[in-house]
Model the fold of this input.
Amino acid sequence: MEFKRINQIQLPDQRFYQIFFPVLFIIIGLFGAFNHALWRDEMQGWLVAWQSDNLIDLWKNNAPSGHPVLWSLLIYFSKNITGTPISMQLMHWFLGSSAILIFWRFSPFSVTTKALFTFGYFPFWEYFFVSRHYVISELIIFIFCSIYNLKEKTYIPFSLCIGLLANTQALSWSLAFAIGMTLLLDWFFNPNQRKNYKRNKYWILDLTSSIAISSTLLCFAAFSLLQVRDSVKLLSSFIDIRHFFRVIGQIFGGYMLIIPDSSRFFDLVLCALITLILLVSTITFIKFYRPALTYFFSGLIFLFLFNYFLFLGDGSRHYGYYFLLIISSLWLSLSNQNQQLTFSNQQNLFTKGNLFHFPRLLTICLTIHFVVGIHMVINDFRVPYSSGKETAQYIKSKGWEDFPIFATRDVEVATVSGYLDREFYLPELDGFGSYAQWANRLILDRTKTLDEVQVYLDKFPKVNKLLLLLSNRSSIKNLEPGESLYFEKFRLIADSKFENSFHDSEMFYLYWVERIAD
Done:
């Protein structure tokens, strides 16, 4: 196989490594599930499901999030495994492990390529340790690649892949669209596919059922997303050169895990040129199998337009979709080498043996992903992703979990709320809650936090003492533990601070507020 050129290390017993690496991945992930401290986005998903008594409540609680309900539904049905956030983490671990097992069992890559990918940034860290819905996209797209040849018998599994992807996350629509376009164009331009499929006695029923399933699930997903359409900010100008290069930077991030500095136009242009080389190399490599090329172009164009007009993305988890698209396109191409089209063997910079031949570039990209993925996982065992878990444990150790607690900012203190399994008074909600309720919350000035504490004391005159929980950007920086501040109607006493956190925003500070008697 041509792609074996990637494998520079000769492994003596490939069968051993095909078992060893997936098992190692699964074991480390299991330890990670019990060690990883959830941060706000992860805990938000848990709390939405945990505080929903039924599916109707789940739909209502999830609707303002801007995401379809599938992830919340999975948490809802698994939440009673332990009755704690570990339930969600174990479920997420199972999905991530399943994706990698399918990858090792069915993908056509060499052992070295599989190992680099498995312990790379996205499969090992972002979509495995961090418990969010992105793992569903990874799993479904790997299922699609592994069952691709079933299209000669049935389309029902593919309709489920399309529908479930659409119900995972807005960016997952790109992968659903890519699958749909691949199957559609293959139907029209591959007479052998139609011939083989129509040998099925019930092919009409299968086809109509597949269309009905995918259409129903797509409509359901669209309805979920349309509930937050007012929060979508469309691009004000159709032509924006800097924004255009910023979107190309997202593709560059998918390959190289680096996003160019948007304030420096030179960085944007340089990364765009490198991205062009990477894209041409990818296309040159997969072009011999038309469905893989269709799949890659469809997903790439959809993602690009989505990033350009609707949502650029604000983290690696988002541009990871470009990475999933690249890997799955290669999977389709290499798994169907016997059906590849013949092209001219004219040599150029992107063909076998030359500088930009794709296997070489992919090895570089996967090595970068591998190094960063290993670093992030090791770091997660050393430095908590959030100090919310530590803060909650401290409150429990002191026996303070039943005290009145005033907390802000709501988005960030959700981690502490989830680990304590109780509601706080959140000024953003002007009442009690445990997670950010995007449709109902108020945007408050962080510098006015103590004014809001006074509002709380006026509202609840029987409360003479309460815990004040502040996230990093809302904290009182010049007050050390044990020190006090006096105000007109209450005294503020600093108790403890929790600053051992990967995310600066999720460092927490505890204070006591005592009412001053009139």
Q: What stands out?
A: The mean pLDDT is 93.
